[in-house]
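wait is this the right file?? whatever heres the structure
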């Protein structure tokens, strides 16, 4: 049985990847510092967990001692707004932490490292949908750190023969996304709606996004393990929706008449984004399987149950 190490494996996306790996008969080991990840996300899975921060150089020795066949690197500072507010912390986690993981991968002679990159590497698009041939001109420190790690992976392949797969995610949503920690717009809306509160939309709400369900992202990561080496692909739905339209659909799913409030657009946010996934379908033999309505239903249902449970505990 091949062994896969997942950094950030107790987090939102990471825990779904752990689940998908186990369903595909891989042995899974998790490294997480639990700053945003939760034990509850992997409590029902039989998985070996190491509590460790990737910014700690000791993670290099830990990875070498685990001797994984593959690494899926999910651990990161994931907030664009936080990257603008705290540029040094963003660099420490996303660049320095990733270099520790890369060094550990080299020491362990892994077969491949799969890296969670982002649509943020492209910046404001020249044309839509965005292919991987599009220029990379990040508009935020977060996007810059992701692009920097991509370049380090290319160097690691050149100098240390470390195979890689870079997966550039569009806006990932789904159950287990923490509105207070790793919060994307869907999880924040779901949290507000489940508490019967009006969410805030930044800007005019006409900005567009490409939303991909977390279980489809997990499947793409599993497929990337056995795909050709040194690939860079988008993981996306390939379609767009405005934030206003998103909120309208979520109101319909939740059967609520709540209205949103509006505030100034945030610095670092991209106006429009849609990633092409045609190349990904061909290279990975993958395609998204969950439509937006069903994905939002599952997300809101999870948020409602989670909030109800937290109120009982309080």
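ok assuming it is, sequence goes like this
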């Amino acid at each position: 049985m091949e062994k896969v190490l997942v950094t950030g494996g107790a987090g939102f996306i990471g825990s779904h990847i752990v689940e998908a790996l186990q369903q595909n008969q891989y042995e899974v080991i998790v490294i997480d510092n639990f700053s945003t990840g939760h034990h509850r996300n992997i409590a029902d899975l039989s998985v070996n967990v190491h509590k460790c921060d990737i910014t700690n150089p000791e993670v290099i020795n830990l990875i070498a001692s685990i001797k994984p066949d593959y690494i899926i690197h999910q651990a990161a500072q994931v907030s664009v707004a936080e990257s603008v507010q705290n540029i040094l912390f963003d660099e420490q986690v996303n660049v320095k932490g990733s270099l520790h993981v890369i060094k550990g991968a080299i020491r362990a002679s892994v077969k491949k490292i799969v890296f969670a990159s982002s649509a943020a590497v492209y910046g404001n698009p020249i044309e839509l949908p965005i292919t991987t041939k599009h220029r990379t001109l990040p508009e935020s420190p977060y996007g810059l750190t992701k692009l920097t790690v991509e370049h380090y992976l290319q160097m690691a392949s050149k100098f240390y023969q470390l195979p890689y797969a870079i997966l550039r995610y569009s806006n990932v949503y789904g159950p287990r996304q923490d509105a207070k920690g790793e919060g994307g717009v869907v999880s924040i809306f779901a949290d507000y709606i489940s508490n019967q509160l009006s969410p805030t939309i930044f800007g005019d709400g006409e900005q567009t996004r490409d939303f991909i369900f977390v279980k489809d992202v997990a499947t793409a990561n599993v497929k990337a393990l056995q795909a050709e080496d040194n690939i860079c692909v988008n993981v996306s739905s390939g379609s767009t929706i405005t934030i206003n339209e998103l909120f309208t659909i979520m109101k319909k799913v939740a059967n609520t008449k709540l209205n949103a409030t509006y505030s100034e657009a945030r610095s670092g946010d991209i106006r429009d984004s849609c990633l092409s996934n045609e190349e990904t379908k061909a290279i990975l033999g993958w395609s998204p399987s969950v439509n937006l309505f069903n994905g939002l239903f599952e997300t809101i249902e999870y948020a409602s149950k989670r909030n109800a449970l937290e109120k009982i505990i309080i």
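The domain at 176-209+239-276+289-313 is CATH 3.90.25.10 (UDP-galactose 4-epimerase; domain 1). so i think its the right one actually
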